[in-house]
Amino acid sequence: xxxxxxxxxxxxxxxxxxxxxxxxxxxxxxxxxxxxxxxxxxxxxxxxxxxxxxxxxxxxxxxxxxxxxxxxxxxx
Length: 76
Description:
The chain is an all-alpha fold. Helix content is 57%, strand content 0%. Residues 1-8 have low confidence and may be disordered.
């Protein structure tokens, strides 16, 4: 990730089109990975606690929900 385009990442507008330093690029990737892992953990925990009626509403079987909830947070 040598260059971060503002049109694809408006949250990085402070860069004004400049490339990230190597350290900043690694730090940015780490922050993105941590945020994704936290989201995976949170959504899988919520999925695990849905009742069968709610699972039917979203078209997911209990077995599939349990399989997804059992996956480690770092797996996408």
